[in-house]
Design a protein that fits this description.
single chain, alpha/beta, 7 helices, 38% helix
Length: 265
């Protein structure tokens, strides 16, 4: 996965690790430890940790898989399965491009509010806070961000909405303060199959440059359901995916909330 992550995106992905009850936690802890022990730059370590979390559903479908190389680049990971050496190229499909910029701004705002609350009293405010905002709030405006951060801070302190915050609910969290967006899924929030096909075609072009020492190279496309930019309800024109041609030995689409998997090739 070669897209650029902001620090806020990475922190949020890693925090979600502690919220997801479906995670295979022992393997994840082991893989995160291996990444920490590597010589990668700290930012690259965060990125790799976020990437391996997106493969949690993959591990449920392939429980025998073990990851041998967590720090390679082309492909993203090398694993073994049934005595075969498998290269795994991971990519995220963005369903709502217009939401990506908004989500990045929200993550920065949330992180600043989290820091304020943790500096004041982590034990008192420890928890996961799901926030809904009033419409037409300009989150990307620097002039508004400080006021929004203050409204969030006051809402959590008082336990009720303040200012731009419309609704707030809290869930337990054993480590620290974690703020996220309350996203209401639409029944008609479709993911167009053409977006998946476009991703496959782009990856096809890079296939000749991947590690040739592997027995097979798999492409794993993930919808990060913890991201408001990647969520979807159903795949539109799913039958079109069966017509895909690619040099990858296997292609899967995964969503990381319920673990649903589509075998494309």
């Amino acid at each position: 996965m070669k897209r650029a992550f902001s620090d806020e995106d990475l922190i949020k992905n890693l925090s979600l690790y502690y919220l997801n009850r479906h995670l295979k936690k022992k393997p994840m802890q082991k893989y995160h430890q291996k990444i920490d022990e590597s010589k990668l730059h700290d930012r690259e370590k965060y990125k790799k940790k976020a990437e391996i979390l997106l493969l949690n559903s993959f591990m449920h479908h392939f429980p025998e898989v073990t990851f041998e190389n967590l720090t390679c680049e082309s492909p993203d990971f090398i694993a073994t399965l049934n005595e075969k050496k498998i290269g795994i190229e991971l990519t995220e499909v963005i369903n709502h491009l217009d939401m990506k910029k908004l989500e990045s701004s929200l993550n920065k705002i949330f992180r600043q509010a989290e820091i304020l609350l943790e500096q004041e009293d982590t034990t008192k405010y420890r928890g996961v806070y799901f926030l809904e905002f009033h419409p037409n709030i300009k989150f990307d405006s620097l002039e508004n961000q400080q006021e929004i951060i203050l409204n969030i801070y006051k809402s959590i302190k008082r336990g009720k909405p303040v200012g731009c915050v419309k609704n707030i609910r809290k869930s337990s969290h054993r480590r620290n303060v974690f703020i996220t967006y309350e996203y209401n899924m639409s029944l008609f929030d479709e993911l167009c199959s053409e977006k998946i096909i476009e991703l496959i075609e782009k990856k096809n072009e890079k296939f000749p440059y991947y590690d040739t020492s592997v027995d097979e190279c798999w492409l794993v496309i993930v919808s990060d359901m913890n991201s408001i930019a990647s969520r979807y309800t159903f795949i539109q024109d799913r039958e079109h995916l069966s017509q895909v041609k690619s040099p990858f030995h296997k292609i899967f689409h995964l969503e990381n909330l319920c673990g649903n998997m589509t075998n494309i090739k």
